[in-house]
Design brief:
There is one protein chain. The protein is an alpha+beta fold. It contains 6 helices and 14 strands. It folds into 2 domains: about 120 residues, Serine Threonine Protein Phosphatase 5, Tetratricopeptide repeat (Alpha Horseshoe); about 250 residues, Autotransporter beta-domain (Lipocalin), CATH 2.40.128. A 12-stranded antiparallel barrel has the order 1-2-3-4-5-6-7-8-9-10-11-14. A two-stranded antiparallel sheet has the order 12-13.
């Protein structure tokens, strides 16, 4: 178990370092290109390079200074003053820029800094104030994993966006078909989620319920903590769990008893990983995950007072990669391959990957490969 977890953790940190190095190198290249274009008096192209550098690294004070230089050369003193101030906020120890900023400020009438006034009034780039809005999203997805387990789902999500910072509340209805105790079963899922946009920190909490064939009942909960490291790079941590029950054969636990009983299960899971969005139409994310599933009790269907403790648990380590492509406005294609390793105990345990009870004479482990393909369409 330990070698697998060490390998997954090492892969995560390697990918994180690669994303960070890529962003820093690319930002430096855009900055150098912008400086060259500015010296050649190609101010429009230089502006684009500085803006690209800041998208990759919003803490690059030299890029803000470059923006101000270009804008000043084009005669936009108010916007130049705003970008000079942004540069000084990141690097106050710049006496020459401080002097230039004070001189420029004295040349402008009070309130002429349009960029600052627009930002303080909460307006977007087009000068229009943000208005709360409702967003609709329809989705189709197909997931395949080992042992023939597959899940096909159709979903609708409605989201109310309250603020420009990212406060929201949403509800999702999903109809899916997956294997439960070896048979394809229909399941309905209803989930409610809410989140806050607190600058670089974005927490969200979701609670949901599942109902379906084979008396499937399950309550789900999930906490997500998002950290915006800089504009294209974020770090996401999730902690979730569920508890529920379904009907299944007692014979897997006690071969001499040919009856159906209620099988009580629970699990918790956690993931950690970065997401990187270099362009508006494409993003990539990777996560290291750990899941702990336990089958803890059998309960009689017709005699609920008859309860037998089981306490059989399995553990699952995963490494996930997600690639999101915006095909055209509103349509997103998501490809998410997955590799992992399961650690199964001796005895019978309900295995969510296999969609049924699995019996092992001794503790064992096995690798698996899976993946999800989904497409969604969103509109206001």
């Amino acid at each position: 178990m330990k070698p697998m977890r060490f390998t997954l953790a090492a892969a995560f940190f390697a990918l994180s370092l690669a994303f960070t190095a890529y962003a820093q190198d690319s930002a430096a290249q855009y900055l150098a290109a912008g400086n060259k274009l500015y010296l050649g008096k190609n101010y429009s192209q230089a502006l684009r390079c500085y803006q690209s550098a800041l998208k990759l690294n919003p803490h690059l004070w030299q890029a803000y200074e470059g923006l101000g230089n270009c804008e000043l050369a084009q005669g936009d003193k108010a916007q130049a003053l705003s970008d000079y101030r942004a540069s000084l906020a990141l690097n106050p120890g710049n006496p020459s820029l401080t002097s230039l900023t004070l001189s420029l400020q004295s040349q402008l009438p009070s309130g002429a800094d349009s960029a600052d006034s627009t930002a303080s009034s909460g307006e977007d780039e087009e000068g229009k104030p943000f208005k709360p809005y409702w967003e609709n999203e329809f989705g189709l997805s197909s997931t395949n994993q080992q042992a023939g387990q597959s899940t096909n789902a159709l979903s609708y999500t409605g989201t109310q966006h309250f603020t420009e910072d990212g406060d929201f509340a949403s509800g999702e209805l999903q109809l899916e078909r997956q294997k439960v105790e070896g048979a394809a079963s229909g399941i309905g899922v209803l989930t409610f989620e809410g989140g806050l946009g607190l600058g670089f920190f974005s927490p969200a909490l979701s609670i949901g319920g599942e109902w379906g064939q084979n008396a499937w009942h399950q309550l789900d909960g999930n906490l997500t903590l998002g950290f915006q490291l800089w504009d294209p790079l974020a770090l996401n941590y999730t902690l979730g769990g569920n508890a529920g029950y379904h009907d299944g054969p007692v014979s897997q636990f006690y071969p001499s008893i040919n009856e159906t009983a209620r099988i009580d299960t629970a699990s918790w899971n956690t993931t950690l990983g970065p997401s990187f969005t270099p362009w508006d139409w494409w993003s990539i994310s990777t996560t290291v995950g750990y899941e702990y599933d336990i089958t803890y009790e059998l309960q009689g269907i017709y005699h609920p007072n008859k309860k037998v403790p089981i306490n059989q648990a399995e553990q699952i380590d995963t490494l996930n990669l997600a690639l999101d492509f915006t095909l055209f406005k509103g349509f997103i294609l998501d490809l998410a391959p997955q590799v992992g390793r399961e650690y199964l105990p001796a005895g019978a345990v309900y295995n969510p990957k296999a969609g049924g009870l699995v019996f092992n004479t001794s503790p064992t482990s096995q690798n698996f490969v899976g993946g999800t393909v989904s497409v969604s369409y969103s509109f206001e």
